Amino acid sequence: MAWNRWAKSVGVALLTMAALLLAACGGSENNTGTTLNRSGTITIWHNWEGSYLDAKKAIFDAYTKQYPNVTINLVHKPNLTDAVTTAVPAGQGPDVIAWVDDVLGKFVKLDIIRPLDGLAGVDMAYMNANFSKAAVDADTFEGKIYGMPETVEAITMIYNKDLVSSDQVPKTTDALQSFAASFQSSHPGKYGVVWNTKDAYFNAPWVYGFGGYYVKADGTVGLTTDGTKAGFNFITSFRGKIPAAVDYGVADTLFKEGKAAIIINGPWSVADYGKANVKYGLATLPTANGKPVSPFVGVKTLMVSTNASNPALAVDVIKWFDNKDNEVAQSVANKEIPANKLALADPQVQAIEQVKGFGAQVSNGVPLPNTPYMSALWDPVAKALEAVWTGKQSVDAALSDAQKAALANISQLK
Amino acid sequence: MYRTSLRLTLTYLSPMVVGVGLISLFPILYNVYISFTNQNLYHFRQYSIVGFVNYGKLFQGLDADFFIVLGRTFLFVAICIPLFLAVGMAAAMALNHPSVRFKPFWRVALIVPWAVPSYITALVWKFFFNEDFGTLNQLYRVVAGPHAGLPWLSDPTWAFASIVIANVWMSYPFFMIVILGALQSIPSELYEAAAVDGAPAWSQFRRITLPLLRPAILPATILSAIVTFNVLNTAYLITKGGPFISAAKPGATDFVMVYAFRVAFQLFNYSYIAAFAVVIFFLLFTVTLGSLRFTGLVREEAR
Amino acid sequence: MRTGAFSRYGVPILIHAFLVAMLIFALFPVFFVLQAAFRPGQSLYSLTLSLWPDHPTWDNFVYIWTRVPFPTWLKNSLGIGIGTMIAGLIGSATGAYALARFRFAGKRMTLILLLAIQAFPTVLALVPIYIILRTVGLIGSPFGLMLAYVAGALVFSTWNLKGYFDTIPRELDEAALIDGCTVTQAFIRIVLPLSLPALAVTALLMFLTAWNEWVMAQTLLLSEDAYTVPVGLWGLQDNYRIPWGYFAAGSLLVSIPVMVLFLGLQQYFRSGLTVGGVKG
After folding, report:
1. Using 50, 70 and 90 to split pLDDT, how confident is the model at B232?
2. Which of A149, A234, B107, C28 is the most exposed place for a label (fewest CB within 10 A)?
3. Chains near B, with 3+ CB pairs < 8 A?
């Protein structure tokens, strides 16, 4: 008797769950609103904070002042990409997602973001007229525009003026190697140059600079090419000249405490270096075999979710955010490099030291790949770097293992 | 044991059953469903049922990642749990001893590893274990010379041990608390009677304390074993699954969940990971059932 | 008790030595968090063995208290923590009582299923939990999060309480029933007061489940005003930097309520069982 009742309640529960599943599997709401109608609420999920956020908020406030029927809701969301991947497929989430271009391809495939073509006057002509080529490339996928570029960033050499003068900063990869060695012997307990040698992002300049590559948009993996091998050999040549257990935090602390003359890091770090009383200067990465090396250029991008109820308005808002004047204002306030090329050319912007320093590097970089295939690469490359850095594998063996793993990952993605 | 009305029984049980059903049962059913589909990055919203394909991929060959990761995690749990128990029990017994004064102070002090959030303590331990600058090696250098250093995080075996150490630090308070609570249920008259009979302390422990603590320790151990098996935060924050000696193999601390997290959230192969999770779940489920039967805990209840 | 010199002095000395060793083991990492909180410049550590920063500062504490919505997060965390604690106590005590005292069909199955179901990893349960909460309309609400927390911690607490209830002689309940109490009254008046140590453990476990959890919180909470402390703190990092100073200061502040709670609860760690209650 009691068993029957129990079984029945379990049955009901299962049916309910099945119904929930079916509801969850249904598609998202239909998107209307392709004609521009400046009223409604736009929610933006972002990762900005502090004074950084203040400058951006001011720009959005100016928009809502001009169009009072629009409310712009800024939400600071930790672990943004995970949150978005859970919320949007379930029919929720923001209207605009502010992140970096590397997630673009993935979000397109996951049906999380929608194309901007044709909305609020945005098309390829507009993009090419206003933004640098790297930024446009980063925000286009399979021929369509999926995001508005905001700022660009790349790592470069940051040097401590108290430890090394600007003409002593090495300009070629060979010079970098000898600098590391000589600095270490003339300054015991200190290091000539440090960076996170175990991370695929931080070592992209060497891999791409020596002629190799990680992955192409069509899925070809280049880990076993000669260029990549040469890059890896260059990295391992620094064993002993950089602490064995180096990682981002260690390198960062070494530089802050004046124990490293040069660090290879990005624009996000210099504010703290200033606070740590390091007089820093910026220099472009050295050349390899006569050609400048290419770090990844990350393009911070604003994307529109497939759940946005008023996509045209969303595009209008982000178009406004990225126009010349607003980009100049943001740049002056936050010392970032604008993606808008008209803003970049503005003399006010050019006068900012960080913009000039990092900007010079950006022009030599490759866009941070937005293809989903890239996500199959971070892991194998990081593992290969670790294996060769700790000496547990030779460069050739590590790279061939990584190639195998990357190809396996990519086949899983398809 | 008494019979009561069904209504009363349901009233007492329903909060628990409904809550557990929604939050614990539904995800299992959901993942079972997904594991039979091909949901991944390229088939996210429109996916189709593909049958046992994912399960086939899991078991490809005896050196498949699955078995390596599984074995490693079992080993991890087998080492951690006795350590948790030993340290937690010792601490609880010590805190309960009559000769200790200012018990509140000691109790609060020893529960601190639990009070401070694990996301920061894991990172502190990561620093401790740093080969060049970590505190542990700095202390070691005091006795072993200026260039010595233990490879805490770069050697696979040492890294494994490091995670064990950090995990023991984070988990012993749980056992300490549970045992401390359960110790209060043992009437002191039992100890006094044993003392009058001339029984030494060790024998009292074995014959009185341990058996009476068993109903409390067993569920705690099983739960802790499950939680440790599914450890993600600590291992991921300290080693991210490394150290890796090859890009084609799991790392030394690539436990079940660390591995699953990477595959699911970095490679987006949701259906594969759902199959993985379902298999792991059934494994743990069976082991739990077995240990419950084995310890007779369940048999006693069905009176 | 054999009052040899060892039992009198040796054992207490050993015990105290052990406790001191445990103290160092337990507190040393936390001490590091403490010194990071007072260190300017957002570094976790200094590369030279220095136990205390050269220029300690209160800035980090001031910053998180004033420049980020830390007080709001704290309030939210407290609300959710206490809510989880109360709901969890009710849910597990009632369930444990039923399992310990009532006889009904399917009991054995329930017991087994309960514990074994916990084996499923939470991380992979995120998406289904999100779907369920959205369907019942609790997504983004602190109640939804509380439901998730309570349900997650219920099973163990129920088991633990049941074990404790089992040690309370049934004769006590039955005596009350004979005297005319209902089952519920027997539960509330007799069994619960005798179970204070186990209830204290349950309360602590429930609170802690909710207090330091961040994976589910950041997925299930949608607006900034609803964030709990772990979500807020974790959001302070961006790209590659973790602002250690703020992180440490926040983590320390967030540990204080736990210690206070424990200090309050640990007075219940006194034997609650009087065997003499049945006689006469």
Report:
1. confident
2. C28
3. A, C
